[in-house]
Amino acid sequence: MSYQIELRHIRYFLEVARNLHFRKAAEKLYVSQPGLSRQIHQMEEKIGVQLFVRDSKKVKLTAAGAYLQEEFELILRNVDGAIDHARLIEKGVMGSINLGYVGSAMQQIIPDLLTRFSDKNAEVQFNLQEMDNLKQADALLSQKIDLGFVRLERAPAGLKMHPVLEESFVLVLPVDHPLDQDSFRSLSQFKMEHFILFEQSYSPSYYDKMMELFYYSGFEPIVSHNTVHAGTIYKLVEHHLGVSILPESLMQENPKVKFIRLNQLPFKTTLYAIWSLENRNPVLHDLITKYLLEEHGK
């Protein structure tokens, strides 16, 4: 059955759904309010579904309307993505990848991956954005990004994760701290120290693993500062505002700090590549199958 729905109808519907206000939606679409109302009414008649509940005070989406809003948003992103891809091809660029990542992935994993891929695919464009783990999952599901690098315990439904790096933790201390690798015996030696840690919301599963490390060592840490940036952690440690624990991949040459490796503790953290099973970007498929999985095992 053909419902004769055009992209115009979908764009009009989505604008009203986002604003829940016909006049504001009409202004953003540069159409008249009566004309917009007619288009929505026509769309409802064609598909046989009521999309909005209207009264004199407010506009609300019906359950069917809310469902179609989510589905149509994805359809439009696919259409817009296909058009963008075609424009890149017209310019001699074979495609693009929108990539999200947590900071530690940029130390080695992403540069190595992009270098190997770009050597044979110089015509592919990459757009990179640092994002926390949960925002990456949401962005992958809505296809705002194509590929992510996260520290999560499990993949949300519809997403696929593949491990790319398993690593131990390191303590980060001011360079003049009395303890060092030779005098280190147990993390409990630091139970009276103030700790600077990544914000729990940045990665709840990573934060939980950190807490397990402390509990295993017999104490609950005194947390004086939380942040989402490793650079901030280094600055705070440099200024003797606390000590920290980071994944090994975030170790940096810095004359104002020193490190104690925690390899003897039975705790590791894993960095995963993650992508949507519904993503149809052909460049993503090549990147995953020919470079990411090949390098890090299937």
From TrEMBL:
Pfam families: HTH_1, LysR_substrate. Keywords: DNA-binding, Transcription, Transcription regulation. It comes from the Bacteria. Residues 5-62 form the HTH lysR-type domain. Belongs to the LysR transcriptional regulatory family. This is LysR family transcriptional regulator. The lineage of its organism: Bacteria, Pseudomonadati, Bacteroidota, Cytophagia, Cytophagales.
